[in-house]
Amino acid sequence: MEIKKTPFYEAHQGLEAKMVEFAGYLMPLWYESVKEEAIAVRKAAGLFDISHMGKILIRGRNSLKLIQKLITNDASRLKPGKICYALLCNEKGTVIDDILVYGLGKERYLLVSNAANAEKVLNWLKKWAKKEIGLFSPPEIILKDCPFLALQGPKSEEILRKVGLSETFLNLRYYQCKAGRIFGETAIISRTGYTGEDGFEILIWEPKTPQVVWKKLLKAGRDLGLKPAGLAARDVLRLEAGLPLYGQELSEEITALEAGLEKFVFFGKEFIGKEALLEQKNRGLEKKLIGFEILSGRIARPKYLILKEGREIGQVASGNISHNLNKSIGTGFVKTDFSAPGTLIEIDIRGQKHPAKVSKLPFVKPR
Questions:
Q1: Within this chain, do residues 155 and 215 fall inside the same structural domain, yes or no?
Q2: pLDDT tens digits for 324-353?
């Protein structure tokens, strides 16, 4: 399969970014350093290329009916300009993907999926459109290929105000979006992000010269501390904020409830996986997602064993060094009896047991 390049690839090269293949794209892993970029986002702002994310437009008759059948949240509340976080589950209640759903207008929605899951989600939507709605009146389902940027950090709004973005966009509340123009480009601008900071995501809907948006934002934000940021900083930041990563905190082996995401499951409607999740909720969870701190400062990797007095009680999902907290943090799934914050545990790192303690998620309080 040919590796794709985003419209900002040359800009990344010009900044001497460390490039890696990720989800079929060449993406920047870091520019200056993971530490500098992660700290910049918490203190000022960072600009991320997220063009690799899946963007799926659903429009036409029965769009809402299809989405309501497939997602755990309640899309009927999505008035134009509103966004919700939701999960796509299979019949077992385990997770196909976690997504954002944008309400763009009557029977018109945008789903943003994880990059590696875009085709899987597209096929899942089409399968159920055919099964639930039939051949005569299914909605149109289109996988879009649009440039996508995330401006994240406490100075994000100040940067957008500096470049003259309309107050209409600057006044967006969290999980709201609006279509408009930025530097001559037609875009959907939302107050969303994956870092735990205030920020905006800019989906360039009808790209002409999207590179201009990247360059002008970086130039405008330079004096305010804005830095370009790569995948590595994004991963550290989302872990600090307790946000799940598909393939680690979420998968088709993990239910929405085990991942601690029950608040995004609306049991007041029918959806795929509801019966399994209700049964699990009533029975009680055997395992839960926890946060933890490794007291020795070593880094935990996915699949490392979590122990209690030498006995296996679970596995690590994610682990990294938090440059903002100056500690080694991680997440994992453990037996429910050992999930209380403050519980002393050990992480098996290459045969050596390292002391750790269960921490309350998130590690960094979201803005």
A1: yes
A2: 999 999 999 999 999 999 999 999 999 999
